Write a sequence for this structure.
């Protein structure tokens, strides 16, 4: 039985067993194959197949949920019964939203699923690891990182007639190279394994590592900084929750009291778009609503909040779902999952050439929020931090801790690169971003490495 | 379940692997939550699946599946072997597992009240009541009351004869609220902030929390924080309470002592560690002489407490730091030989059937000192108390850290003089632990469960417990903020 037929069967069992109550089945499946390497050798090699069926039952303002990872009719029916039992123990909520009705959703963008990527073998991943490891061994370097290929699917069906399915693939290459006690890193990520420029990523990581040898210490303080694409993504992703209408309603957003006003500097354009382009993904959200392309910041002015159906109702003023619901109910919903940022006029190389004095950051590590009102965050530099002098990378510097307001820093952006990348970020979420040059960036302390 | 195990073991043996094992994990969870007067979580989940490890020609392969059938066991076991063969094409040295006796055993964690048997009505009524108390003031813009509990049954069979069944029950709960006024937002939680709190016990944990009584205090402190002054900037003595200290232990001692990190096997993701093996061999003062950090897989109520780890190694108790000196690591059977240990400490754990076991922090606790809490305050001239973790960040070698708490209180000339908001502190790990000059006694020693420890690729989430009593650290940089 093919996957869609299988998922229809699961939905039918759920709806039938729910006996006229509102019912929803969210089916998430996948197979993640990942080769991990360290010290120029494969250290871990896994293939994990997973399935989760999340059942939501509603009736009379009450809600109950049950999850399982089996597809047998008996087990699914038992889970529905458990959800009903939980539901019956609830206090009625007069404001509980009924489940969504079918809506026309956009077609899935081409290119998000690649059969060849789904079928990549351990041996194929191993060959790519070997190419990197051999290149490192020749130079007396050590490689670590991952190569992975993943296929995943989401099916959402409800008893009102919603039935949406999505399948995607993703391949990742993280090359971290150690030169003595110093490091360089480069990433490759794509929906297609075949589109990852393995050789180019490997050479970039090796080049960074070799440049990073013997770093010098500089004093903490304020410096002009150039965040390469990966740290720029980590930095911008910290604004995610602030664009949620739920966070806004609860006073947790940096946009509170500033909707429609200038919050960032001119030239800062941020959007969430899963429908096409480099961040294409699921065209529907976890309520079954069509995902919309939403401008979050237009030339530094906050344009729109993100909504699910519940936040739209609570917000009022004619607000409607923008298709950003997480599985319901959720304290985190709505949420942007497909953020991107527009670029500027000059390439990263040209921006470096145009910088008299500054710091080039290859990666940020372990970022955490200090204050959501101004998106104050802290985190470390990692895997290649360099001093720029008179338009050239002069020498590597020791890692430093940044303690900075993202909102404040986005008002001090001097330039965005014209070259944009679909890149990894600190916590695994991806983003399509330019590199960013920011003045007066705050580093609060240093390290000895 | 052992029938499925035997099928996998037969295949592994017939294919002449160096070593192989199968874990079948069945997990039942329930999560209940009320947010802002409405149901935010009301779900039960059940999962069953298995994972197979194969060591072939000295290299690992792992495969897993949620479909527990003889045919799927055969497919997945074969796949694990094929993956191991692919791994063996690029290996610098063969993996050799440290020996461990083969055990045939059953281990069950103790509890008094099964939370699954407490009526849903009772549990939801409690959460609605707590949430209502939190929302008694209009300045509380979001409130959450929650409880979670899970029951895990695990079968482990290895090619060297181990057959172990383990059953654990864990229970957690608490409440959180956010107060908002004039653009200011402040959070308070009980008993824990980020990551919640949980113990390997039953519903007696929820009863003991007395959440309805504590919710009043949580609400009032969140509101008081709105108008409290900012945490001052500068250097002063820092007194850390149990929840914040758990985070400090976790990040600066727990992860730093994971031997896989120390040896470079986590380099590309979570990073490595400054606690290099030369320090272990030559002697390294990690902290002041009163600092004793003990790993203990037998700690009653600890979230990492077990009979055996996922390598089949029996639970142990050992020092990571003894009288201030680095004394040990978190080890598994694969890596312990690299520092000359003949036996692993039993730290190999996976977060479920679908994940490969990796080196994990065991329960790791700061042993009590001999100070009364009142004496600790009375002897502090210029200090700040911080508790309940709010933010955390530490570098890739576990040296430079910046942590933030929900709440702080200034101490002047031996007296608590007032509350401050947004307290943060920064430090370098060994300097910080060497500045520890006082640890409270056993009367203040409490368990803090960590439920959200992320590590590995693909990512896994582990649990462990860090017990401690409040401790004082001299001359610490506090009040670091974005400028």
């Amino acid at each position: 039985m093919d996957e869609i037929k299988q998922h229809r069967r699961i939905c039918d069992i759920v709806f039938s067993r729910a006996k006229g109550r509102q019912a929803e089945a969210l089916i998430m499946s996948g197979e993640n194959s990942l080769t991990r390497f360290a010290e120029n050798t494969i250290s871990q090699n896994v293939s994990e197949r997973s399935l989760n069926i999340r059942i939501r039952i509603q009736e009379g303002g009450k809600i109950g949920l049950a999850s399982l990872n089996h597809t047998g009719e008996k087990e699914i029916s038992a889970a529905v019964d458990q959800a009903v039992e939980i539901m019956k123990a609830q206090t009625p909520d007069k404001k509980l939203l009924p489940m969504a009705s079918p809506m026309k959703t956009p077609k899935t963008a081409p290119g998000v699923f690649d059969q060849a990527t789904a079928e990549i073998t351990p041996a194929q991943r191993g060959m790519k690891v070997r190419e990197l490891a051999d290149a490192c061994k020749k130079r007396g370097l050590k490689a670590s990182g991952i190569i992975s290929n993943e296929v995943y699917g989401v099916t959402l069906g409800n008893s009102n007639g919603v039935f949406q399915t999505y399948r995607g693939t993703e391949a990742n290459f993280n090359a971290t190279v150690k030169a003595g006690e110093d490091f360089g890193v480069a990433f490759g990520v794509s929906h297609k394994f075949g589109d990852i420029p393995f050789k180019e990523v490997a050479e970039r990581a090796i080049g960074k590592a070799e440049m990073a040898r013997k770093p010098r210490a500089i004093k903490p303080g304020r410096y002009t900084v150039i965040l390469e694409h990966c740290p720029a993504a980590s930095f911008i992703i910290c604004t995610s929750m602030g664009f949620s209408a739920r966070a806004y309603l609860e006073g947790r957003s940096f946009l509170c009291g500033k909707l429609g006003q200038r919050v960032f500097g001119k030239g800062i354009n941020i959007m969430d778009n899963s429908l096409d382009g480099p961040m294409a993904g699921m065209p529907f959200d976890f309520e079954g609503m069509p995902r919309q392309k939403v401008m979050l910041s237009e030339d530094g002015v906050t344009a729109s909040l993100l909504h699910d159906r519940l936040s739209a109702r609570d917000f009022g003023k004619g607000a409607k779902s923008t298709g950003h619901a997480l599985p319901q109910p959720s304290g985190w919903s709505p949420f942007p999952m497909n953020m991107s940022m527009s670029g500027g006029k000059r390439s990263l190389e040209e921006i470096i050439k145009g910088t008299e004095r500054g710091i080039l950051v290859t990666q940020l590590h372990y970022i955490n929020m200090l204050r959501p009102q101004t998106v104050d965050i802290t985190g470390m530099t990692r895997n290649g931090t360099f001093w720029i002098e008179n338009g050239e990378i002069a020498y590597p510097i020791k890692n430093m801790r940044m303690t900075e307001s993202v909102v404040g820093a986005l008002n001090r952006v001097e330039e965005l690169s014209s070259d944009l990348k679909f890149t990894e970020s600190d916590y695994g979420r991806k983003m399509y971003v330019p590199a960013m040059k920011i003045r007066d960036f705050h580093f609060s302390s240093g390290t000895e490495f | 379940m052992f029938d499925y195990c035997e099928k996998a073991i037969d295949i592994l043996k017939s294919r002449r692997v160096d070593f192989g094992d199968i874990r079948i994990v069945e997990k039942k969870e329930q999560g209940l939550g009320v947010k802002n007067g409405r149901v935010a979580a009301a779900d039960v989940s059940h999962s069953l699946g298995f994972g197979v490890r194969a060591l072939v020609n000295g290299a690992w392969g792992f495969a897993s599946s949620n479909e527990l059938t003889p045919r799927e066991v055969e497919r997945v076991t074969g796949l694990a072997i094929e993956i191991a063969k692919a791994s063996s094409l690029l290996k610098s040295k063969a993996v050799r597992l440290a020996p461990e006796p083969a055990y045939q055993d059953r281990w069950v964690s103790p509890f008094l009240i099964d939370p699954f048997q407490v009526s849903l009505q009772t549990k939801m009524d409690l959460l609605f009541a707590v949430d209502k108390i939190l929302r008694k003031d209009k300045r509380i813009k979001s409130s959450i009351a929650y409880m979670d509990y899970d029951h895990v049954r695990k079968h482990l069979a290895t090619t060297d004869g181990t057959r172990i069944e383990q059953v654990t029950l864990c229970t957690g709960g608490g409440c959180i609220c956010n107060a908002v006024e004039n653009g200011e937002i402040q959070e308070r939680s009980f008993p824990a902030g980020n990551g919640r709190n949980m113990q390997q016990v039953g519903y007696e944990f929820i009863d003991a929390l007395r959440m309805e009584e504590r919710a009043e205090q949580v609400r009032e402190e969140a509101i008081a924080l709105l108008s409290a002054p900012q945490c001052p900037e500068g250097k002063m003595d820092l007194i850390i309470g149990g929840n914040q200290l758990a985070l400090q232990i976790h990040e600066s001692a727990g992860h730093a002592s994971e031997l896989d990190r120390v040896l470079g096997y986590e380099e590309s993701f979570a990073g490595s560690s400054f606690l290099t093996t030369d320090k272990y061999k030559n002697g390294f003062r990690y902290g002041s002489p009163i600092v004793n950090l003990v790993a203990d897989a037998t700690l009653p109520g600890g979230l990492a407490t077990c009979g055996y780890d996922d390598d089949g190694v029996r639970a142990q108790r050992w020092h990571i730091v003894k009288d201030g000196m680095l004394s040990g690591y978190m080890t598994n059977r694969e890596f312990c030989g690299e520092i000359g240990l003949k036996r692993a400490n039993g730290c190999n754990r996976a977060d479920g059937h679908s994940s490969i076991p990796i080196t994990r922090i065991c329960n790791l606790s700061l042993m009590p000192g001999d100070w009364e809490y009142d004496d600790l305050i009375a002897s502090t001239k210029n200090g700040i108390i911080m508790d309940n973790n709010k933010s955390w960040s530490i570098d890739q070698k576990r040296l430079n850290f910046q942590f933030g708490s929900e709440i702080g209180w200034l101490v002047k000339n031996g007296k608590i003089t007032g509350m401050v908001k947004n307290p943060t502190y920064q430090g370098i790990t060994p300097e910080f632990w060497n500045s520890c000059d006082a640890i409270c006694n056993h009367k203040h020693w409490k368990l803090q469960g960590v439920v959200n420890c992320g590590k590995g690729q693909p990512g896994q989430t582990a649990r462990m417990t860090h017990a401690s009593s409040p401790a004082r650290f001299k001359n610490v940089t506090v009040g670091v903020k974005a400028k």
About this structure: The mean pLDDT of chain B is 96. Chain B is about 20% helix and 40% strand.
